[in-house]
């Protein structure tokens, strides 16, 4: 109440945020802190020039959201809060250190479908892409932004397809740069899957994107989520274009079919991986030339193995 009554006085807002932060360790205070998110973001929006207030506000919001996720509480932050976060991103678009924390906050916020939709509505996608282009070297920013874009693509409506289409080359650049970092590669593969599902990958991008996804699978074969989402992304690309299917067959770094077999045998007890691989093969056999090649490489044997392993799925 004190912060709201003196919303225009920066020192009051800063002291208020500091005082609220002192309750973070007190579990009984959590329900009350949950109600303070709009007051915190309101202070950040009103005092847009105060980096220190923004830092402390962002840190406190991260603490509150972390506790919420731990307790299974989904915080559906409204459009006003989303707008405030966008203003904060724009104000500090050059501050790499602060953006790292801010992008982590956006990732946690976007876990809620409602909040992700509100972030999309206020137009945050171009800003995320701009941040990725500028800070392609920053692991934390790349991981967080790809995760946010995945959430936004999953919740997007057709009106944003053109905006999301411009994300494909940026996410591909992230994946290319961080192929050996399994955490970032997994986040980027998931984002590419969501974008391909929305039909945002152009015909000309299908082949290079498929080749890049195969590289990610080769470099990170042990990561279950990456393998599953990478195969689902490949299946979406193959559904869009035969060139993607041919890229899998004729990849210059080795047979994509052999890679599929290797991935299944590595994760033979993971139903999610088996299902993704089956979906990929189902999309590939719609093309006669590709199906003949798959037959010659004894794919029936692999399908029989999967059927035996998961007889009731």
TrEMBL record:
EC top class, in one word? transferase
Which Gene3D superfamilies does the record match to this protein?
Leucine-rich Repeat Variant
Q: Recorded E.C. number(s)? A: 2.7.11.1
Q: InterPro entries of this UniProt entry?
A: ARM-like, ARM-type_fold
Transferase: present as a keyword of the record?
Answer: yes
Give the UniProt keywords, A-Z. ATP-binding, Kinase, Nucleotide-binding, Serine/threonine-protein kinase, Transferase
Q: Which reaction does it catalyse?
A: L-threonyl-[protein] + ATP = O-phospho-L-threonyl-[protein] + ADP + H(+); L-seryl-[protein] + ATP = O-phospho-L-seryl-[protein] + ADP + H(+)
This entry's Gene Ontology molecular function terms read: ATP binding; protein serine/threonine kinase activity
Tell me what this protein is called: Serine/threonine kinase-like domain-containing protein STKLD1
State the species of origin.
Answer: Machaerirhynchus nigripectus
